[in-house]
Amino acid sequence: MTATLIDGKSFAAGLRQRIAEHTAAMKERGITPGLAVVLVGEDPASQVYVRSKGKQTRETGMNSFEHRLPADTPEAELLALVGQLNEDPAVNGILVQLPLPGHMDEAAVINAIRPEKDVDGFHILNVGRLATGQKAMVPCTPLGSLMLLRDQLGSLSGKNALVIGRSNIVGKPMAQLLLRDSATVTIAHSRTCDLPDLCRTADIVIAAVGRAHFVKGDWIKPGATVIDVGINRTDDGLVGDVDFAAASQVAGAITPVPGGVGPMTIACLLANTLTATARANGLPDPEGLTP
Ligand code: NDP
Questions:
Q1: Segments in 72-207 forming alpha helices (H)
Q2: Which residue has a Cα nearest atom 47 of ligand 1?
Q3: What is the pLDDT of residue 99?
Q4: Domains of the chain and CATH, by start
């Protein structure tokens, strides 16, 4: 391997440490940040995520509130809970774990969260604020990826960045953040032509496709920085969207899976909760936690 390994696990640990320090300082002023996580149903992956979110929230000194509802909960009941959490001053951040059961309208539920408490950054107002360069809550996985990129490269200005994937939770907000940092951004998706050639022109590659080892080593421009967002469960365990063994021979720097972007996502959720708490109390945004 010739590429530098971008160690998201250790970066996230440092970030959580800084969040814990900010939280302790807030508590001295009588403010305890609180994150409410709502899980509907029994999806095993979601249960694991919710457990680790709760654990890490408590470890940084914040209050964690967990609400578990059965899979057949009527949407109106979930909306009523979101309404209660919106009004609860002890709750600064609200996260409704996705995916929701099929009978629920995800967009309606997400848009019922008060935008200031929308720590996932999926509310339509936060999407619009991000797109127009206003103060927003920024989705956690793209925010974490941006932090790793800035740490690795310093300025992203003028770099050719290719985002593979155009989902609302990763690809699109990632592209917005890169654009905001003055990268030249291309978004690829399943209808993109000549993806390998396009990829060979990219100084920065963000892979958010959801297919194991999709991005091949010979697609990578020598020296490029590769951020692998993918999490794919295979017989060989968790693997990313990038053929790590081959790409790491060509790239300048690359994130591993696991241990790359994954740990950054929850750390950024805590960062967003802290930011939401600061804003709710008229305090400046905690340094280094927002884009
Ligand atoms: P989606 O399934 O919502 O989006 C996948 C995107 O990949 C789509 O835009 C799709 O294009 C595109 N795509 C699919 N096939 C191809 C292809 N052959 N060529 C080019 N593009 C293609 O996934 P998400 O954005 O939610 O997640 C992406 C990956 O990131 C998954 O592995 C997921 O598990 C992981 N993830 C990791 C997180 C973390 O914490 N590290 C958090 C969130 C997600 P089209 O729009 O045309 O269909």
A1: 75-87, 106-112, 124-131, 140-153, 171-180, 195-199
A2: 190
A3: 95
A4: 30-114 (3.40.50.10860), 140-262 (3.40.50.720)
Q: Which token pair is 156? A: 């992203």
- CA of 74 from ligand 1 middle (Å) equals 29
Q: Which residues fall in the annotated binding site for NADP(+)?
A: 165-167, 231
The span from the CA of 232 to the CA of 241, in Å, is 7
Phi then psi for 135, rounded to 5 degrees?
Answer: -60, 120
Task: Report which protein residue has its CA nearest ligand 1's atom 39.
Answer: 262
> Is there an atom of ligand 1 within 6 Å of 188 CB?
yes
- Residues with Cβ within 8 Å of 37's Cβ and at least 6 positions away in sequence, in order, are 50, 53, 54, 64, 65, 66, 67, 95, 97
pTM of the complete model? 0.98
pLDDT tens, position by position, 4-39: 999 999 999 999 999 999 999 999 999 999 999 999
**Hey, what are 99's tokens?**
């995916």
**Quick check: CB of 232 below 6 Å from ligand 1?**
yes
Residue reference for tokens 């972007």: 261
Q: Decide: 176 and 141 in contact? Cβ < 8 Å.
A: no
Tell me how far the alpha carbon of residue 242 lies from the centroid of ligand 1, in angstroms: 12
CA of residue 254 to ligand 1 center, whole Å: 18
